[in-house]
Amino acid sequence: MKYVSLSFRGLKIFENLSVDFVSGKVNVIVGENGSGKTTLFNLISGLVKPQNGKILLNSEDITSLSFEKRAKMGIVRSFQEAKIFRFMNTCDNGLFAFRYLPFERFFKSLFRGVKKEREYVKAFLKEFNLEEKCFSKAGELSLGNQRLLNLLTVLNTKGRVFLLDEPLAGINEVFYESIIKRIKEIASENLVIVIEHSWGTIEALEGKVYKLEGGKIFGV
Ligand SMILES: Nc1ncnc2c1ncn2[C@@H]1O[C@H](COP(=O)(O)OP(=O)(O)OP(=O)(O)O)[C@@H](O)[C@H]1O
Ligand SMILES: [Mg+2]
């Protein structure tokens, strides 16, 4: 992004913020509560528009594109709270990893159970012991498992930009290592930006760390 400025009702959040995130390594964002980390994701994913400046994806100006258009371009994100469909079962939730397929194909996978897609979901759920919950309503999972389901669905989306807002918060520590490994794998070929508080996790991600402070961003 280049020279991005954003204020909310006169409160300056960013002023002339310029930063290039690159793939190959995880980009890690740190900063105090309220420093604008989630807002940075809102700018990149299109939920919030800057008052000045540009958001670029591989030098293409995407500043005026909607959240949906950017998602279709492969910008996917997780949120601080788990976004799942509580009344759908766990496996059907996992199928949202395909939501950016052409619409028709996605609906087929959801309602008619296209075999290939269902098997893909089962495989990624199995690794994290969620397969046995395939037919349970996602809203009945423990909160930790709801976040895990949400994260796995995002990580298994065929995106090219992954924005992960505190991905490990609330998730059973026994899975940390494999999730961190997966995030690094994705980062080797895609752009991955992770907001993280825990220094242990930041170290394990072996990424490039940026700090948000006073509306500016600094390499650490
Ligand atoms: N849509 C909005 N309208 C008005 N103010 C907002 C909006 N979104 C964020 N803010 C304000 O912008 C500032 C940065 O918020 P943000 O959620 O980006 O912080 P954060 O770094 O993610 O914090 P945390 O560590 O608590 O998640 C806060 O002062 C917040 O109140
Ligand atoms: Mg936040």
The arrangement of helices and strands along the chain is EEEHEEEHEHHHHEHEHEE
CATH superfamily of the largest domain: P-loop containing nucleotide triphosphate hydrolases
Return the structural class. alpha/beta
Unreliable segments (pLDDT under 50, ≥5 consecutive)?
Answer: none
CATH topology of the largest domain: Rossmann fold
Give the terminus-to-terminus CA distance. 18 Å
Rg (CA only): 18 Å
What does it look like?
By secondary structure, the protein is an alpha/beta fold. It has 2 domains: 1-74 and 159-220, Rossmann fold (3-Layer(aba) Sandwich); 84-158, no CATH class. The protein has helices at residues 37-45, 67-72, 90-94, 103-111, 115-126, 143-155, 176-189, 199-205; strands at residues 2-8, 11-17, 27-30, 52-54, 56-57, 60-61, 75-77, 161-165, 191-195, 208-213, 216-219. A hairpin with a 2-residue loop joins β5 (56-57) and β6 (60-61). The longest helix has 14 residues, at 176-189. The mean pLDDT is 91.
